Records
---
Amino acid sequence: MHFIPLMQPDISEDDIAAVTSVLRSGMLVQGKNSEAFEQTIAAFLGCRHVVTVANGTASLHLALAALNIRHGHEVIVPAFSYPATANVVELVGATPVFVDIQLSDFNIDVSKIEQAITPKTKAIIPVHEFGVACEISKLMEISEKHNLFVVEDAACALGAKENGKHVGSFGGIGSFSLHPRKSITSGEGGFITTNDNALASKIRVLRNHGMKTENGKMIFEEAGFNYRLTDFQCALALSQFKRYNDIVKRKQEIAEIYLNGLASNTKLQLPATFNNRNHTWQTFHTIVSDSISRDVMIDKLRKKNIGTNYGAQCIPIQDFYFKKYNLDCAKLFPNAMHAYMNGIAFPMYNRLKDEEVKYIVQTVNELTGN
Ligand SMILES: *Cc1c(COP(=O)(O)O)cnc(C)c1O
């Protein structure tokens, strides 16, 4: 078998044509594709405003800046995610307060949020990890009771829903990424969603150097960022989005081959599926039993031409956070630590062929003695 990477973007001839047409037009930034993408996604998600930004981290950073979250404030984040979720809290000078996850969906354990709230808490950033919604309605009840902002980190969950409602449309702000590891890509890229008109305007101003135009005059009303996305990237994202349903449908088929083929593997805990929450399969994430070394398994799979990797990180044990806060992660975040130490993500992208998935299943079963 040839090498099967963990992820491969799906770039079609139409995508390439969409990008080159913008390049030929000479309008490289802030052209019509940004607006078209924003309107298309707003209609898809059922959100009033969508604002394209440079990437998913810029999107979270901009969200916190627009909410005026700063030094002296605390923001609740799951202990298990991509570190960007907590990094942006540090970047605005606030303090991330970590809450453990549950192992069923690898998302924040909503029952543990209230005990983490203090008078300094301003916001919660729940993550919809691996393409499935967290228990967002329950979380919204808590945030409303305590008057906290919610910034949904939906970086890897475009199209995920709870009871038919899209992630990114529950909280005050939703944040998405268009990195090649996500379901559709613009290379680097991201976007923010909100239903709040004032927040949307502020986000647009902050995205563009803190500038607004009034009667054709430039007014710099904030010390802003340049977090704009180029128009050729928006053209790519828009072209990719046309295939969104096909991409997720194919990933669902792949997930079923994995789930059936690995169902009787006693060494692997497979990802759960839920009645009221669809899985968009950004990642196929499993947990290996303690009797197997996850890192040895990654090495052995690589030797068999299969690319796998960790799913996400236990953030408070990463160098920066450990040096700064020195938290007893095994005691405080046992599930995040277990997912971090034993988690393994298998190849998942729509161009994977059935034979490749079956080869992976067979190899994994052989290597784990099943
Ligand atoms: C990918 C990802 C990000 C970062 O997005 P970028 O576009 O790479 O900056 C943030 N949070 C989560 C949960 C992610 O999966």
---
Amino acid sequence: MDFIDLGRQYEKLKIEIDQNIQNVLQHRQFIMGPEVYQLELELASFINTKHAITCANGTDALQLLFMAYDIGPGDAVFCPSVTFISSIEPAVMLGATPVFCDITDDTYNINAQSLEAQIINVLREGVHVPKAVVVVDFLGNPADYDEITSICKKYNIILIEDAAQAFGSEYHDKKCCSLGHAASTSFFPSKPLGGYGDGGAIFTNDDKVADLCRSIRVHGKGASKYDNVRVGLNSRLDTIQAAILLPKLRALKDFEVALRVNVADKYNEAFEEYLQIPKVFNNNLSVFAQYALLANSETERDNMRAYLDKENIPNMIYYPYPQHKLIVNKENPYTEISFLNAERYCKTTFSLPMHPYLKESEQEHIIKTVIKAVSEIR
Ligand SMILES: *Cc1c(COP(=O)(O)O)cnc(C)c1O
């Protein structure tokens, strides 16, 4: 059993994927070929934003946005303490200061009260200017955009949605990737929409930001490639990756999201009385990039994982440490605080196999084993 089974997806989409790769080998426009523009059109139409701009990976998608918004030294960039380092890494590279916030105890997304408290904290200290918040749709679950948008308006802060784990998720009647001033996503192979290598995209309705990102992804090009008007990056999506992503996008739309939700519903129903299950609010939809459960304690979690390992059930921790406890952030002036929800989450979380092609028999085996583990360990 695989934690995420990409082989089964390939079996299902093989004819289209192989054909699309062959087409690229025939036309040989390996950089910015027609599939890249076709994918951008289909991405924008699915997400319902004016612009979709592909790039080399999800981390670069954030970097392109931070550069487009001119984020740099003196700027405070807020983000949840529980996320992958990529959410904040490019802002730090550009000289900005990350300011971590606690998460909620049920969705594990950025906690709006903690965000506002940290903004007030930064304003009171007067060293950094509150500039942007990176809101992560953690493990695929949309954050609380009504609350966060009103805080961003109140303090005039840019809202950047890191939807690397939430391509296909929905908040109320909108798709994730369309919930901030701009959004980023990742096509890393194991993400809900993944290629066969690195890839990423930016989404926005803002023409100016879109133009800047299109320039910065090709070395700060002006009207042409050799008319450079600003410092940029080399961050394009390979044509072959776009060709692979096209049929995968259609599969995600047509049936993979529904299959993911089915798996999660079954897990939720089975585990509700034993462990803390993930909370998805009523008007939202999560693609469950990961399915995470919380144990009662760190020891219980570690014992659960040892039991699952012994029974050959793949399992992972997303993520073992909150950002404010990482060595890389040890000099950060805003990390003295303890974030109780973030710390509890990281100590007790573990994730189970989750993908659209998990067979019913496999799911039943996982469920039986987890429940047996709980009863033997407690
Ligand atoms: C995967 C991920 C990214 C970065 O994506 P890459 O394509 O690997 O660079 C950013 N943010 C979050 C929350 C992620 O999970």
